[in-house]
## 1
Amino acid sequence: MNRFKNYYANAKAELLKVIFPIKEQIRSAYLSVFIVVTVITLFLALIDGIMSLSLSSIIN
């Protein structure tokens, strides 16, 4: 039982050390991820379109 109390006290002490992000930090991280994913998606769509056109012109 003593080990459980010690574990619980240590877990509680560690949780008190955690610094949770504020709303502005979450929003800026979300915006950054959204922009990066959008840019990569557009780049891959462009590459896919170029490769599709080039392969279709080679085949025909």
## 2
Amino acid sequence: MAKITLSNLAHSYFPKPTSEEDWALKEMNHVWNDGEAYALLGASGCGKSTLLNIISGLLEPSEGQILFGDTDVTHMTTTERNIAQVFQFPVVYDTMTVRENLAFPLKNRGAPADYIRQRVQTIGQMIGMEVELDHRARGLTADAKQKISLGRGMVREDVNAILFDEPLTVIDPHMKWALRTQLKELHQQFGHTMIYVTHDQTEALTFADKVVVMYDGRVVQMGTPEELFETPEHTFVGYFIGSPGMNVLRARVEGRRAALDNGEIGLAGAYPALDGKVEIGVRPEFVRLTDAPDGLPVNVRRVEDVGRHKIVRADYFGSPINVIVPEGHEIGADMTRVLFDPAHVNVYQNDWRVAPTGQEAA
């Protein structure tokens, strides 16, 4: 296992990049701790697979270094880096049994037969295929083959890291939760450094100790699920994490007040006068539908009952606002205003979160 350090790392697929848009990965500096589970989360094309391929050694970065512990592995092959990788589509040997597929990485490294037998039995049990260990892989479902791929990626105990590139894409939805749970249990049991690439926030939030959110070739935030929810450092994080995502409204912010199109709200902290694109962000969970006259007037378009709560879809002078109403709370016809919880309103300047000064406005 290894701590992974990305030092001044950047990559372009162009031989001579001339503008910021030419860089698939903008310069980044990060330390990923030994033994933690990370999820690389972002929309298609944001750079997450490029970053994973650089970490694995399938791609050499245009600039910067990658260190495993204190060792510079930037120019090392995947084999030299001693990592395991599980890809989006299952890679199994159809002519081999499940047992032989799982044992293959260990046999290649000359592990003792008794250890191979014990280890394969353990992994077979963990992926729920103990009964099928002596069945040939040919004819198994795509779900079963991907479970073999997952097991083969985790069968070695001596790897520096295990990398997963959208490994549950081909898995039926009802199986995904069980496999995510098994991966989490395996991580807790064996303590490997794990990096899991996905565009699915549910996968990321349920698997990872820390989620690495990428947008336009940058890591815009690395944090726990709670940190991503409570204090999104970039408007994209607020939009991408949560269902529905964070409400974002243009505003003029100064001191402890934010002036909107036709109203004003209080803020929990004080801010200097901000220029550029200034916005406030508040999650639907911290918006309350009300008939109180001090609320912001909204036009309620529809109400969606999703069982555990209701989602009110409204707009405020052309800007959409979503409100989550807890189960059992009535929504009256005269409730056409909203109130924001000041403690959960974030302020953004040019898409990046601005921290309050904590001092009273002059």
